[in-house]
Specification:
Length: 281
């Protein structure tokens, strides 16, 4: 029987434990604070930001939205970040991506103080993660690791295949799996004969950005399949990168979309923000 890994349920449990930590922090006079910077009016970004703020409020984290117009100069944005870096009531800073094209994302992310980089995207955070040092882990791969932890499956020696090599999902995903002693293979758009590789996976992570791309031809029977994708199909329905109906009968565990990795990403953002506040004590 296939186990459906519910990010909604697991996320709820983790959020409860984060909320307990918020109460303890408040008892010590500290309210965790997250600043979210949104530049421009991208509708998807607005929705993501609203969800992050709501989730913060639900567990007692103070959230502050810094909304800037589309034509904000890069120097003005950097100045805003520097101001937030100095504030004691702000423990996490997040810049919602993508940014308008005239702004260099690398410069912006590198300006966030590493001790407030709760998205885990800055070069310092990424470098520390690669070295296995304590740092904020990027929220989506961190959330996937929590989901895998909840399956109770020992990752050591398992063959994990990651489809996708983006800076925010694929690359860090492989690193975190490697740190748990999985044998990791990265695949991407230039990979030859993708199904022959994904079919070897004990753990298959799909982070491609193409609706229903992974079918049962890509999957070894009994594999754990984690679907990071968030896409709209031809009927405008929210679907993952994995064709759930096709793959779920042969997988041992599988995440649904929605309700799989998505809720975990925000959960780990809350986790990192509270951890940052705890470090400030
Ligand atoms: P990117 O577009 O940055 O990366 C996609 C990756 O998929 C690239 O590495 C690309 O390869 C690879 N790829 C594209 N086509 C193929 C193919 N035919 N065969 C093999 N590999 C291919 O996307 P992200 O990593 O940012 O996001 C991936 C998905 O995850 C998206 O659907 C996104 O919406 C979703 N997402 C979900 C989150 C969540 O909270 N659940 C959070 C973040 C993202 P190459 O490098 O060669 O171009």
């Amino acid at each position: 029987m296939t186990n459906i890994i519910s990010g909604t349920e697991i996320g709820k449990q983790i959020r409860q434990s984060i909320a307990d930590r918020v109460v303890k922090l408040k008892d010590q006079g500290v309210t965790p604070g997250l600043a979210v910077i949104l530049v421009g009016d991208n509708p998807a970004s607005q929705t993501y930001v609203r969800n992050k703020q709501k989730s913060c409020e639900a567990i007692g984290i103070y959230s502050e939205l810094v909304k800037l117009p589309e034509d904000t100069k890069e120097s003005e944005l950097l100045e805003q970040i520097q101001q937030l870096n100095k504030r004691q009531d702000i423990h996490g800073i997040l810049v919602q991506l993508p940014l308008p094209k005239h702004i260099n994302e690398d410069n912006v992310i590198a300006t966030i103080a590493p001790e407030k980089d709760v998205d885990g995207f800055s070069p310092v955070s990424v470098g520390k993660m690669m070295l296995g040092q304590e740092t904020f882990l990027p929220c989506t791969p961190f959330g996937v690791m929590k989901l895998l932890e909840y399956t109770g499956v020992d990752l050591a020696g398992k063959h994990a295949v990651v489809v996708g090599r983006s800076h925010i999902v694929g690359k860090p995903m492989g690193q975190l799996l490697l740190q748990k002693d999985a044998t990791v293979t990265y695949t991407h758009s230039k990979t030859n004969d993708l199904p022959s590789i994904t079919k070897q996976a004990d753990i298959l992570i799909a982070a491609v950005g193409r609706a229903n791309f992974i079918t049962k031809e890509h999957v070894k029977p009994g594999a754990i399949v984690i679907d990071v994708g968030i896409n709209r199909d031809e009927n405008n329905k929210l679907v993952g990168d994995v064709d759930f109906d096709d793959v779920s009968p042969i997988a041992s565990h599988i995440t649904p979309v929605p309700g799989g990795v998505g809720p975990m990403t925000i959960t780990m953002l809350l986790f990192n923000t509270v951890q940052s506040a705890e470090h400030s004590l």
